[in-house]
Amino acid sequence: MDFASMTFPLTVDISGVQYWIGDEGPYKLGMAATEFLADGSDTETRKELEELLRTFGFLLSPFTDGYVAAGKRFDLSDHTVGCAVNYGYRPISGGAYFVERYTFTSLRDFLFVELGKAILNGNAPRQCRLCGRWFFHEKSDRTIYCDRVAPGEAERTCREVGARALFEKKIQNEDAWKIYKRAYKKYYARLMKGTMTQEEFKAWADEAAAERDKAIRQLQRENISEVLMAEIFGELRERLNRK
Asked: Which residues contact 8 (CB under 8 A, 6 or more apart)?
């Protein structure tokens, strides 16, 4: 979207999650704010849009993990928007869309309303967990990575690299749980046979759960080596079976 070529007053027709700018479109709500944030310019408008996301992004949970609701420190009375609103019809083949017709006098007002409506409808810009760049997120899309080429990669995208990393983390966590479950069955059998008291079993179970969670936290480190991974699994087995 070429923000530099936009002329104001700007007429925008919005219907559902799509909108038109003059004769151009349809665009999806949130696309303009995403492109503006992705540009990287350090402006007051950018800071305001990021604050809007931090404040109301929790409405998009679980898709905006990391955003914290902060409504008390974002007073909307300090962020008013100047625009005229009316209704109209947007002609399409075989009929017309009933639309809200906005007339904006500045780029900031247009982006503020576009992002707000996007959040209300479940869309929003989000930052890639791998490269940190902004990308467009649509309602029900659970991805946390963009589809640009990942840092240090020739062809693989952040989405491809990130998905593989998530899969590997999941397998690692499952392996830790398997070790824990095998040990749990072993000691529960002792409890059932009467070779271990209820108090002894409870003490073991509490300690075992703590050791399991500690191992999972260690496995979640970035760029963990296979050697260290094997050491973590070995120590977990030893600690859970030492009694």
From this structure: 104, 105, 106, 107
Q: What angle do CA 53, 54, 58 make, to 5 degrees?
A: 85
For residue range 92-139, what is the model confidence (pLDDT) as tens digits? 888 899 999 999 999 999 999 999 999 888 888 888 888 888 999 888
Tell me: do 106 and 177 sit in the same domain. no
Q: What percent of the chain has pLDDT over 70?
A: 88
Please state, as a whole number, how many other Cβ atoms lie within 10 Å of the Cβ of residue 164.
11
Are 14 and 99 contacting, i.e. CB atoms less than 8 angstroms apart?
yes
Question: What domain range includes position 36?
Answer: 3-137
Farthest-apart Cα atoms in the chain, separation? 82
Are 41 and 117 within one domain?
yes
**Is the same domain home to 82 and 187?**
no
Q: What is the pTM of this model?
A: 0.64
Tell me if 117 sits within 8 A of 94, measured CB to CB. Answer: no
- Among the listed residues 119, 131, 127, 120, the one whose alpha carbon sits nearest the alpha carbon of residue 143: 127
pLDDT tens-digit readout, 166-181: 666 767 778 888 888 8
